[in-house]
Design a protein that fits this description.
mainly alpha, single chain, Arc Repressor Mutant, subunit A, 198 residues
């Protein structure tokens, strides 16, 4: 198994990505508990030796996938903003919630949140990632005299945003990413005039 600090070759990264994509597809098809390493390597068109080069077992693969997606959710929500930037909510546009496009582009993974037999510990991860991002990176400016930077309010925001995104997934992503972004911006503008990126 490769050390986390060791940089993998582009080919190795592609191989791991193919394994993860096959894993996600199989969980959506038959549930986490019914997916075997054999299923994964057959779907990804590799052999077991290749799988064990990178992962000790199925839970190891699941944990790496969970961790990577958790960090990508946080990063996608903040990477377009420079630290120290002050953003007005009335200047936000269709590109302002990149998390929406990320969810749409990774629908197969986000559909796992809707399954009963899914990756252990996955439920609640979306809201937790959004909450950590809000706590670590954003200082909100309230409309009126309200404390919208409290932990309680940011938890409320995180769970509300996650709920809206997962409801979107439940409808089969019926609305476009632009429509969902517009809804989120309208909600955000109802209580915040802007925010600073830490």
């Amino acid at each position: 198994m490769k050390s986390k600090k060791e940089k993998l070759s582009p080919q190795a990264e592609r191989t791991k990505q193919h394994i993860k994509e096959a894993f996600v597809e199989l969980i959506n098809e038959k549930g986490f508990s019914h997916v075997s390493v054999t299923d994964i390597v057959q779907k990804a068109q590799y052999n077991r030796a290749t799988f064990y080069l990178y992962y000790s077992d199925k839970p190891h693969l699941a944990e790496e996938l969970r961790g990577e997606m958790f960090e990508q959710i946080k990063r996608t929500s903040t990477e377009r903003y420079e630290p120290g930037a002050d953003i007005l909510t009335n200047a936000m546009d269709a590109d302002s919630f990149e998390l929406v496009s990320f969810v749409y582009d990774n629908r197969a993974f986000f559909n796992l949140y809707l399954l009963e037999d899914t990756i252990p510990g996955l439920n609640g991860e979306l809201a937790r990632a959004i909450f950590e991002m809000l706590e670590e990176r954003f200082r909100l400016t309230a409309i009126g005299d309200h404390d919208i930077n409290s932990t309680s309010f940011k938890l409320y925001m995180a769970h509300g945003t996650a709920g809206l995104l997962l409801d979107w997934a439940k409808t089969g992503y019926e609305k476009s990413p632009i429509e969902i972004t517009g809804t989120l911006i309208a909600i955000f503008r109802s209580f915040a005039s802007g925010f600073r990126v830490n």
